[in-house]
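haha ok so turns out i had the wrong file open the whole time. this is the CORRECT one, sorry everyone. sequence first:
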Amino acid sequence: MKTYGFGVDIGGTTVKLGLFRTDGELLDKWEIPTRKEDSGSQILPDVAASIKEKLQDKGIAADDVQGVGVGVPGPVTPEGVVCRCVNLGWGVFNVEETLSELTGYPVKAGNDANVAALGEMWQGAGKGAKSIVMVTLGTGVGGGVIVDGHIVAGANGAGGEIGHIPVNDEETLVCGCGKKGCLEQYASATGVVTLTKRALESSDQPSSLRELATVTAKDTFDAAKAGDALALGVVEQFGKILGKGLAVIACVVNPEMFVIGGGVSKAGKIITDVVEKYYMPNTFHACREAQFKLAELGNDAGIYGCVKMIL
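then structure:
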């Protein structure tokens, strides 16, 4: 095993990079802009240039690097082929081969949510566990499934796309994926806002949220923590939908733990409490031992998981 490895988490706005020791210690982290012009053709050359620059700055020998792990916002096959990353402008090509040619190092690529799950299992909230499901509650709902220490990527790299589990046949709004009634439409930051607006419109119940010009998911959770009855009702609705969704996943995967991250998870224990409340009665009895924890690595989970992939 060589001493160093690089983790690269490619997002729609910035690329996060980390220089690690292969024992898991993060030595340095930095960001570069994601240049999406020309169908994202500059992204990987920019990454390669940034890695070479960092090696020179730190005086690290090129042959002391184990490899580079890459997380991308879209499905990735086990062979490293991305199947269209819409928000990067990428079509179908082999990320591993391309970046390996640019850097001269072995490269392993994975879906960003799956990679974040691996990071949390390695050095975060899931440390010590072998089977976890990571749930990322942000603008959308992402997921990463790890079973016996291995990412479940699936045939087309779409394993762990838990945000698109259908949960409501009556929904009229269309999800970003083109379907209606996806988990993401209720459990994401955007989804919590939708639930809140519907609650405000469908009743005359007094609420501090009525005084706000625009409502965010944070506003709803803050109001609930302050005892606002309408906000508490929304949080219960959110917990019921997400808790039942995770109960379904557990019957397939039987994880030791659910790790909940993403911007919405910053609301804290109110999230894990309400989700666990609805998870327990809805899942198979043998799956009720699952623990619920908040993610610990924040935005760094991806770069940690990228390095774990190359190990």
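The first helix runs from residue 37 to 40.
again sry for the mixup
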